[in-house]
Amino acid sequence: MINISNLSYAFGTGSSRTPVFSGLSMNVQRGEFISVVGGSGCGKSTLFKIIAGLLEPDNGRITLNGAESATAAKRLGSVAYMPQQDLLLPWRTVMDNCLLPWELKRSRPKAAAVAEIRTLLQRFGLEGTEGAYPQELSGGMRQRVAVLRTVAAGNDLLLLDEPFGALDAITKRSLQRWLLELWAELDKTVLFITHDLEEALLLSDRIYLMTGSGGGMQEFPAGLPRPRHHSLNYQPQFAALRQELELKLYENRRS
Amino acid sequence: MRTAAPRSLLQHYGPASLLALLTLAVWETVARLGLVPPFILPAPSAVCKALLEERRLLFGVHLPATLLEVLTGFALSVVCGCLLGIAMHLFSPLAKALYPLLIISQTVPLIALSPLFIMWFGYTLWSKVAVVFLTAFFPVVIGTYDGLSKNTDAYRELLLTYGANRWQILGKVGVPLALPSFFSGLKLSAVYCVIGATIGEWLGGSQGLGYFSRRMAGNLQSAKMFAAVVLLSVLGILLFLAVAALEKIILKKRGRYS
Ligand SMILES: Nc1ncnc2c1ncn2[C@@H]1O[C@H](COP(=O)(O)OP(=O)(O)O)[C@@H](O)[C@H]1O
Ligand SMILES: [Mg+2]
């Protein structure tokens, strides 16, 4: 699906350049759910912006769907990116927000797009919110609408940047269960940023650890069997993996 | 709900109406008692009488003339102000060049400049429209430009990843976010238009409420002068309310975000 090799990026210009990461490589197969974990400020959001095509990397190659893109801007419009804030337009209803990606492409009749969004609203547990404005919804619902809009963009690769980061613990738990169930039927490839280790273990096939301070990326095979149930959280196998993951992160921090 | 509506109306407009009535009552009493000569301060009732007596001239000739100047000037201000505001947003060198000049254009005392307009346009509609335009276009430009200058980086990036181009980003995010600021400018502009038209008519011409009020003042017919002033002020209020109503309709359709 996507292959990244030897990617590096630095903010700033001239002598005051501060490297965010370098020599970063990862490989994602079609249909995988991959989490990227790492401390705050280690460059996770920056990596996603590069993949989405918003930032040009200093070095390295990105191959998307088997084709290497010459410039970052070439990838714009081919990867669905959900930024850290939900960025729902407050003056548009839920339906109109979800129609936004369609409005910009107009690749098919409106009725078809509306029908698809109605089906998705059902599947996302958002029936009856079609005509509501974002500020009338709870935080958890807004986040689901934002995920829906990302799915409705119609790309196979979804980049979700800490989608549950701003939610309270209880809502977060229920959305993790929701995503786990949804994921089984959605047939998309997902790259998922989080700093919640349990969330990463519960949801993903593989986990990449970002080391930060100019370093690269380390793979951690999560490999819990699917289909998964959220009660997995309480099993000893899960606790062991979590401990291992935490140790690894800590090692990387020190070195 | 049905019983609550009149009560909240009373709460909203009660104090202002009460104050206005009180002022009128005191004014009327003072004038009736003859404490002030009528050519200095005519009684409100005398103003009403003048309004009725001169209704043919006021509503048949002068009000339409002023209305034409105001509406022409307002339309020109809105069209030019919007275009200029958008152009300044799209080409930042233009904004840097024009912003100071725009401010200077507002500090020039218009009354001093107006004889120049008479020289350029003669005693036609256009010399008055020029004054209206100069007073009324500034709030539109600033409202449009400042509204469009809101930081939309996060939205811009999101729309870029959907494959949007510059114009689509302006249309889907820039314009909706600019609307509240644009309407603030438009409401100011509507009020300024009436003031501009009055100044324009004072300087020369043969019709319009401003011209009428000045002529009556010259003849010491203060009641008739006040009648024209009342009409001018009502005209300004109605224009303002019309724009406010339009704003409410448009922004309501876009949700309760402002
Ligand atoms: N526009 C920017 N200009 C300069 N530095 C930035 C900019 N955006 C982010 N950074 C820096 O780059 C680093 C990585 O940021 P980010 O990718 O947002 O981290 P994360 O998402 O992992 O928390 C941080 O140290 C941040 O301070
Ligand atoms: Mg981030």
UniProtKB/TrEMBL annotation, chain A:
The lineage of its organism: Bacteria, Bacillati, Bacillota, Bacilli, Bacillales. InterPro entries: AAA+_ATPase, ABC_transporter-like_ATP-bd, ABC_transporter-like_CS, ABC_transporter_ATP-bind, P-loop_NTPase. PROSITE patterns: ABC_TRANSPORTER_1, ABC_TRANSPORTER_2. It holds the Pfam family ABC_tran. Residues 2-237 form the ABC transporter domain. This is Hydroxymethylpyrimidine transport system ATP-binding protein. It comes from the Bacteria. Keywords: ATP-binding, Nucleotide-binding, Transport. One of its GO terms (molecular function) is ATP binding.
From TrEMBL, chain B:
Keywords: Cell membrane, Membrane, Transmembrane, Transmembrane helix, Transport. The chain crosses the membrane at residues 61-86, 98-123, 129-148, 186-205, 225-246. CDD domains: TM_PBP2 (cd06261). Signal peptide: none annotated. Residues 63-247 form the ABC transmembrane type-1 domain. It is found in: Cell membrane. InterPro entries: MetI-like, MetI-like_sf. It is a multi-pass membrane protein. Its main location: membrane. It comes from the Bacteria. PANTHER family: ABC TRANSPORTER PERMEASE PROTEIN HI_0355-RELATED, ALKANE SULFONATE ABC TRANSPORTER-RELATED, MEMBRANE SUBUNIT. Belongs to the binding-protein-dependent transport system permease family. This is Hydroxymethylpyrimidine transport system permease protein.
